[in-house]
């Protein structure tokens, strides 16, 4: 295992330290818990947005804390849900009087811990609502999930709910638009190689030199099947066929598109995938309104990528276009 | 070789296509040459900035074309200089009447081709100046270089010269500030694993499972030496010792810092490196004014990273702080 680390057991702690050194004008850490909040938290008169999850998916989620997106991110151990205590502290730190929305990826541990924290905060009189993101169409249940998994499409929920909250909307309205995003969002990924959790020191699974896994999860959970490697065009078509039919996305729809690298796939290859996705969508007369290509939700150094499609209406377009200024997601209106 | 591509010989062409699909509001491609320019080029009354180099370093350089940075990027074949014809077309496309500055990384082929293009454009009556970036302190000469190599610090030249040009400065002034950046800029990198040029299909060199290479170039050119793997703190100290002494950076200096991932090093590990660099600099009483952590100039899927330090004065701070809006580098003032 060749990693740029000091001690496998200190990876999250040291990463947070390096993260705070990089963005002192954006962020601060809460005392004694691995929670990162906006420097200015709580923001008075704004609904607070809290997300988080296991570490190892950087820049998710701490990279999305900032103006126009999240108020707090809770960082669990690598591929492990944050604890209820952590999430509870995050909720308390960002409640500006209008309540807090939790954005949870659908993994059993995450849902359980976020909901426990919600109950704890409600006992303090804080109004808390939640949404659960389950954008991955690959499999219905998996290693860590009942139902579908939440993957990179979650960034669209951060972005759009974040823009709504920034406008001064009420908690119920922010929740409503987050649910609209989730309802219109579909994703799917694939991998060329596994990743290595630092504390484990070896890959959690193996793939042959000519083998890929379709529908894999962001923790290396099994996908739909393995197959021989093939070209970018064929891989994209296989993922898109499953994504498109699921909503379904239809002739004339407008979409936001995210091509998300899982860790070690070069940006040049993600752009080749983007070409293939665009040509696929042109063939279906689906119009791409806005595109994001990069590493938004990774799996350590896994090689592979995911595609996320969000069907847009005028409200979602306007909120997606709003400016955002966070360490990992900056956009001018 | 497991890559997300269709045909090794079509990688650059298809990448550019996917790039243009992603950023139609920022960019357009010139007819018949692999040159990407701002959608609105030429910008009247603004010095044009042209950079470029071999492909395989994405998002460099096409990702930095946009407001506050470059006007054009010339994309060569993977790890191969763009041709004089390409660069000449780029110069012609972005000259807004105030002349054009070429920002060249110091590789023999690049320098030769950019200078030939400069002469061709001068024969058309276009005023062209050039700067050559040679920030890599690792080695004095290398596989593709006479003198020092230009690596990730080049992004600081794009940013600061770009901000100066955006202010309406004259060509000589833009060149002068670019040279000030180069004079105060030092970088060095290391690698855990090699990368695979698609058309070659296999790694250009190998490293043992417990071996790293210090001072490696962004094309896998030899560094200073190989050694057994060690912790992030020790690796950082080895690079920093060489960087710091070279300028030298001194007690009381203010710097901009870039921790640049070479391709497959997880962002979490780059943040651990950032922690170590910050602690190293604290120990020397050198103050970090602004930090950039991410993949700015990659080597396909190479695992490793580089550190760039730029010594700042008030002028450089102000230009570094200016807003920028390009596909790969966005910053609010």
TrEMBL record, chains A, B:
PROSITE patterns reported for this sequence: DHAK (PS51481)
Gene3D superfamilies, sorted: Dihydroxyacetone kinase, domain 1, Dihydroxyacetone kinase, domain 2
Keywords: Transferase
Enzyme Commission number, as recorded: 2.7.1.-
Residues annotated as domain DhaK: 7-329
SUPFAM superfamilies: DAK1/DegV-like (SSF82549)
Protein name: Dihydroxyacetone kinase-like protein
The species this protein was found in: Thermoanaerobacterium butyriciformans
Lineage, uppermost ranks: Bacteria, Bacillati, Bacillota, Clostridia, Thermoanaerobacterales
């Amino acid at each position: 295992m060749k990693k740029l680390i000091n001690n496998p057991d200190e990876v999250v702690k040291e990463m947070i330290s390096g993260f705070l050194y990089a963005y002192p004008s954006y962020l601060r850490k809460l005392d004694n818990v691995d929670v990162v909040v906006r420097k200015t938290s709580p923001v008075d008169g704004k609904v607070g947005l809290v997300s988080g999850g296991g570490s190892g998916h950087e820049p998710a989620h701490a990279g999305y804390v900032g103006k126009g997106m999240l108020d707090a991110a809770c960082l669990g151990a690598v591929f492990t849900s944050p604890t209820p205590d952590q999430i509870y502290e995050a909720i308390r730190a960002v409640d500006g009087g209008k309540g807090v929305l939790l954005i949870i990826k659908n993994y059993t541990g995450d849902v359980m811990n976020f909901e426990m924290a919600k109950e704890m905060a409600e006992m303090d009189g804080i109004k808390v609502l939640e949404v659960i993101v389950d954008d991955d169409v690959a499999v219905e249940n998996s290693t860590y999930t009942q139902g579908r998994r939440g993957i990179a499409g979650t960034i669209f929920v951060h972005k759009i709910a974040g823009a709504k909250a920034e406008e001064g909307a009420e908690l119920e309205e922010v929740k409503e638009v987050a649910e609209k995003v989730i309802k219109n969002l579909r994703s799917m990924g694939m991998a060329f190689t596994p990743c290595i959790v630092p504390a484990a020191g070896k890959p959690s699974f193996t793939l042959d030199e000519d083998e890929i896994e379709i529908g894999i999860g962001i923790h290396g959970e099994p996908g739909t099947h393995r197959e021989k490697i093939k070209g970018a065009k064929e891989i994209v078509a296989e993922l898109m066929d499953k994504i498109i039919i699921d909503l379904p996305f239809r002739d004339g729809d407008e979409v936001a598109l995210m091509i998300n690298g899982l860790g070690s796939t070069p940006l040049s290859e993600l752009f080749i995938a983007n070409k293939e996705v665009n040509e696929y969508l042109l063939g279906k007369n689906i119009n791409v309104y806005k595109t994001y290509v990069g590493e938004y939700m990774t799996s350590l150094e896994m090689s592979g990528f995911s595609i996320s499609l969000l069907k847009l209406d005028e409200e979602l377009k306007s909120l997606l276009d709003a400016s955002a200024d966070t360490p990992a997601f900056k956009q001018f209106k």
